[in-house]
Structures are given as structure tokens and as C-alpha cells.
Specification:
Blueprint lengths: L5 E7 L3 E10 L2 E11 L3 E2 L2 E2 L2 H19 L2 E2 L1 E6 L5 E10 L9 H11 L8 E13 L2 E4 L9 E12 H13 L3 E7 H9 L2 H6 L1 E6 L4 E7 L2 E8 L3 H12 L3 H11 L12 E5 L6 E5 H25 L9 E4 L8 H9 L3 E3 L13 H17 L7 E2 L2 H13 L5 H18 L1
Parallel strand pairs: 1-7, 7-12, 13-18, 18-19
Antiparallel strand pairs: 1-2, 2-3, 4-5, 6-20, 8-11, 9-10, 9-11, 13-14, 14-15, 16-17
Helix pairs in contact: 1-3, 4-10, 6-7, 6-8, 8-9
Length: 426
């Protein structure tokens, strides 16, 4: 196994922090390691305690490292939240080579040229996603390398986020002794795994319901058209159960995972369980039907908010329907409730890889796939992400240190992430 084929994704969620190690061979992905730890220091998708978040990241990383016997050095971080903004961009350059063949340098230049726009000082560009390249007026080109042309254009989407939020995430990752290989927008990443090409083309809504918040994204014409975050998620269901049964949050979470059902009509009345009453030694008995009533009410509210958000984005009927994913989707009855509410095609997306066949891992697996594909187009350097055991790795590391000159374009493409660190930590 070569460490130049291995990528690591870091998905910082409100309830869980997930680290996924993937091996990319011939453009196909194999998941070789997974680490998951309880997320402390996060609320509604935002960092509220840096020290606790750092410790949670370390726990998840250590778990993944133990699984593969390697040391994780660099990670691709997923970023999400209501502070994310998308705006169209356009770059034009003249092809430089004498034979007029489009090479890597031309693509780097046109992507850099598209970023020359004025953005407010409190915002930071985290990525540019090319929609299409245009060579001498011929459009809808996905990769123009090797083509002959005089004028190269790129139409794409610039993703900006709040500097404060980005700074907090970078600080946590840096203090967990990790480097950032790239930053990836989570709705884009989740869409890579959860949606088919046809769904993306026709128009589809992806609803990712996590612990602290839910992300609603609309894809159309093969690209992310709009994304928004609702500050409601699985934690709200837990809180409702905790109040309704008058028990602790921990016990309410266990009840939700083991006995929860989202569709009242299909819940079982004879499925009973006991919970301790908070502030006393006594126990109370409940059945699945009673808690299904509470769970269904909260999930209906989340779905209603999601539908309202999609209408606010300017979309009425979406031919591709709705695709649901995220940790909360593991609960039985969710699909039936969504079908009953939306009256259109609804399905639950689960990654099709051994070890991560759960909806909570959709974003983490998507980060690996999307970052690899995006880095190939933009010429970003993501490898190596891990350090092999000492006896295998030593010659490679010394070789890397003695290399006198790194290629110019590699330095150039790493500069965006490097600049973030320069701004924040120097």
C-alpha cells in the first residue's frame, strides 16, 4: 500500500466527529479505516468550545489510526453552516503555449482569474467549483487539457464562508496536530455520494438531517444551485423525549436509538421499555407508540421547514423528488413519514462501502470522493495524508526533504490553504 494513494476526511458534526480513511486506486475508492467519537464542544453545527472539540477530533483520529496502523498527518475538512454563500464567477485567459495546447498552467490561471472579485472583508473564499470550460466559444467542456485553442474561459461557482467560523475550525484541526489538505463544502460532498447523475440533472432536493442542524440543498443541471441550514435536528427529538418522559438526555438518546419509530401508524404498542424518572429512583414504563407520537411531531416540523426553505430558494416542483440522509435517517419509519408528507418520490441515501453503510457517513465518504475529483481538475496536491510505519516510510521522507526545488504549480495551488494559515496563525 502506497501512502500516495490514501486520503483522510474529517466530518465535524454536532453529535459525532467522523474520520474516514480511503484508498484511491485507478479512480475508485476503498474505505480502509473509520474513526468515530462523541462530539463535545459543538452546538447546532457551530463550535462553542475549542478545547473539547480538539479532544473529540483527537479521539476520532486515534480510533481510525488504530484500525489501519498508520499516523494521520493531513485531512480534508468538511465545512457547513448558514454562513456559506455561493456566487457565480467567470474567468478568461489566453492559452500560453506556442502550439496552442491547453495545459495545467492555463487551467490554474483561468481558475485564479475567476477569483478576482470583490468580497466583503469578513468573508473568505474556500473553493471555486468549475461548472464548465469554454474553448474558443465551444462550451460544456468538463476538462479541456490537451485540447487546442486560443481563448480559455471558465464558468463556475465561488464558495465563500465567514472568516470567524473558518478560523475556529482551522484552529481546532491545527491544535489536534493535523494539517489541512483541503476544505470541502459538505452539501457538495454529500451530493457526490447520495445523488445519481440523472437526479442532479433533473433537479433534486438533498436533506441531510444531523444531530444539531439539517442542511437543505437543491441540485439542478448537474450542479449545486442553492444550500441552506435549519437549526433543527436529531438533538431536538432527544430533548422532546427527555421532557416528555421526564428522564435524562442520555437515557432519552438510548430510547430514541433502540425503540424510536418515526411513523406513528406503524409503531408497535406492545414494544415496551422502562426509563428512570429524573430526580428520583422510580422507573416508568412507556411503549413505542407513545414516543412515536413525539418523534413524528418533531420530524414533521423539520420536513415542513425544509419544504419552506426549498420554496424560498425559488423551487416548487422538483422532478427528482427528495433524497434524505444523515444520522437521524437510521430510525425506522422516517421514509414512510417523508413519503406521507411530500407526496413525491423520496428515498434514503446510504454509502455503498463496507464499514460505512450508514446514513451518518454520507458526508464523510463524499468529502473523499469530491476532494479527489476536484483536486484532479484544479491540480491541488492532497497526498500524502498519512505516514506509514517507520521502517517503510523513512527513505520516502528523507527523499522528500532533500528535494531542492518543488514544481512551481504545486506551490501555487497549495497557496490558498497556506494563506489561510498565514492569515490566522502567523
Amino acid at each position: 500500500m502506497n501512502n500516495n494513494d490514501i486520503l483522510v476526511s474529517l466530518d465535524i458534526g454536532t453529535t459525532k466527529i467522523k474520520v474516514i480513511i480511503g484508498e484511491v486506486l485507478n479512480d475508485s475508492l476503498n474505505i480502509i479505516g473509520v474513526g468515530s467519537a462523541k462530539s463535545n464542544g459543538m452546538k447546532k453545527g457551530a463550535i462553542v468550545d475549542i478545547d473539547q472539540t480538539v479532544q473529540s477530533i483527537r479521539n476520532a483520529v486515534e480510533q481510525a489510526e488504530r484500525m489501519v496502523g498508520m499516523q494521520i498527518e493531513r485531512v480534508v475538512v468538511g465545512i457547513n453552516g448558514s454562513h456559506i454563500q455561493l456566487q457565480p464567477c467567470h474567468g478568461v485567459v489566453a492559452v500560453q503555449s506556442e502550439d496552442r495546447e491547453i495545459r495545467d498552467e492555463d487551467i490554474y490561471r483561468v481558475i485564479d482569474g475567476a477569483q478576482v472579485i470583490s468580497i466583503p472583508p469578513e468573508r473568505e473564499i474556500i473553493d471555486v467549483i468549475p461548472k464548465q470550460f469554454i474553448v474558443d466559444g465551444l462550451d460544456e467542456i468538463t476538462d479541456p487539457r490537451g485540447m487546442i485553442g486560443v481563448r480559455l474561459e471558465m464558468e463556475g461557482t465561488i464558495i465563500t464562508c465567514s472568516k470567524t467560523v473558518l478560523h475556529n475550525i482551522l484552529k481546532c484541526v491545527e491544535r489536534a496536530n493535523l494539517q489541512i489538505a483541503d476544505i470541502c463544502l459538505q452539501p457538495l460532498a454529500a451530493g457526490t455520494v447520495a445523488l445519481s447523475r440523472d437526479e442532479m440533472n433533473m433537479g433534486v432536493a438533498l436533506i441531510n438531517i444531523g444531530g444539531g442542524c439539517s442542511t437543505v440543498s437543491v441540485f439542478e443541471n448537474d450542479h449545486l444551485a442553492s444550500t441552506s441550514v435549519i437549526p433543527l435536528g436529531g438533538d431536538n427529538i432527544t430533548k422532546d423525549l427527555s421532557i416528555g418522559m421526564r428522564t435524562t438526555s442520555e437515557e432519552a438518546e438510548d430510547v430514541k436509538r433502540n425503540y424510536g419509530h418515526a411513523f406513528y401508524n406503524n409503531a408497535q404498542e406492545d414494544e415496551t421499555f422502562e426509563v428512570s424518572v429524573i430526580g428520583s429512583n422510580s422507573k416508568q414504563t412507556f411503549n413505542q407508540l407513545q414516543i412515536a407520537d413525539m418523534i413524528e411531531a418533531r420530524l414533521e416540523e423539520i420536513f415542513a421547514f425544509a419544504e419552506r426553505e426549498i420554496r424560498r430558494m425559488g423551487y416548487g416542483e422538483l422532478p427528482g423528488g427528495f433524497v434524505l440522509t444523515g444520522g437521524t435517517m437510521a430510525m425506522p419509519g422516517v421514509l414512510e413519514l417523508a413519503q406521507d408528507m411530500f407526496h413525491t418520490s423520496v428515498r434514503i441515501a446510504i454509502p455503498d462501502y463496507i464499514g460505512v453503510r450508514e446514513p451518518q457517513f454520507t458526508a464523510g465518504v463524499g468529502i473523499l470522493q469530491f476532494a479527489y475529483r476536484n483536486a484532479k481538475i484544479q491540480g491541488k496536491e492532497l497526498f500524502p495524508s498519512v505516514m506509514m510505519p517507520e521502517h517503510e516510510q523513512r527513505p520516502k521522507r528523507t527523499k522528500k526533504q532533500t528535494a531542492p526545488n518543488e514544481p512551481k504549480e504545486k506551490k501555487k495551488k497549495e497557496s490558498t490553504i497556506a494563506n489561510l494559515f498565514k492569515n490566522f496563525f502567523d
